[in-house]
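hey m, so remember when u said the tokens were messed up on ur end? i reran from scratch. heres the input so u can diff it against urs
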Amino acid sequence: MVIQHPGEDSDQHGREKMRRERGSVITRHSWVTVFAVALLVRLVFVIPLGAELMKPLRDQRLYLRLGESIAAGRGLMLGRRTPGKVAPENQWKQKVHDFWVGPDDPGMGLAPEGRPTAIIEPLYPLLLGLGSRLWAGNLLVTRILQACLGALSALLLCALGRKLGGRHTGLIAGLGFAFYPHLVYYSGIIATETLFIFLQLLALWRWALWVEKPDRTGALFLGVASGGAFLTRASMLPLGVVLLCLAVWRQRSTLRTVPAVVLGFALITAPWVIRNGHSMGEYRLLPTKGGLNLWMQNHPDLQQLQLERIGTPIPRDIMETIRCRELEQFPAFPDSVREVQRDRILTTRALRYISCNSKYFLYMCWLRCRWYFRFAGSSVRGGLVDFLGSVSFGLLLVFGTIGIWRGRRESMILMAGLVYLMNLVSHTLFHGGIRYRIPADSVFLLPAALALGTMLERVATRCRWKTR
């Protein structure tokens, strides 16, 4: 028989209250720490950059031109561009125009000059257009804004981690995002990555809340967040469909609120679809760059120019088997052919070409898969860049794989695995490279944090046991 003293209940209640209060203080400090560290790391990186564009340039000038057009009141439209001076290491790009279009073509042969275009998803150019109006297009201010979005993304990942494995998992996930080199690097690039990652994580956070409590309001917010991510990068559409199927499989009660998710998505994307119908002559959801990407990424001569530069040319035995080479020629579109028709023509030609050259296409898919898993990029090389990229991505793969296996019965781990798999398949088929991998890397930090947090807790438990 246990004898309980009169004041023991109140003492125990007081101790529990103190633990709860201490836990809430730690929690608040965790949020502040994650946000502050992520923001500070990015500001230290972007502020010295000033207003100069970073390399590789890629699509940065295209986004800026669209943003300037929006700021001038013309909407999404491309005017004639003046080719800049080509660096000696990029002379190979001059040869690209022998197979494609001239360097002064405003829209890569797809978007006619001075006409409304849907070549790029609209949300990021709208952000740049707003920046052109509010802070005269100062790239430093844009980069500081992207640094803030990166810090908010770290908070979202921290929240997802806490929901998955508790406070320690959340803290590790948030700090992992704060320091992950590729995520920091792209906060200085004028491209969609930082905005898309934020909106993707916001959608995944809403997805986790919806699966836990499948009400219509939560479903509507999920649809809106997913629509915002889609308007930044169209790859969110197939991913969203797969995640809806996963939610219904894991939590059958979500099925009745799926229409609310679709409604939220439709509400946020409707202005884009209506604008395309009014300005482009076709009510379309997807941007018009799909056919161009298919044509470019599977054109052997265009790809060989870049592959020879990095020392991995297409083997001669594969090049010799290529057929239907008349389909490689870029069509000489007259001005009367609209952008949506050009996209449709390029898509048809590219698909016919792929069907003619299945062996070559499989080889290119294998090559894109290898590019996807590169430890360091091919455009910007250097000892520190290679080292940080290799170490961070290597650790992410190791701990992320362990976390996927250990948490394979958890809905959020299945979600993270599906995000990574869908991203891998999509960019193996269409467009590989580190740039297209980092949105999936940001989600793969969740299982990595779960694995690392579990290991650290075991080590801490053993240390406490030995000190007793």
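this time it looks ok to me. The first helix runs from residue 8 to 46. if urs says something different then somethings off w ur setup not the seq
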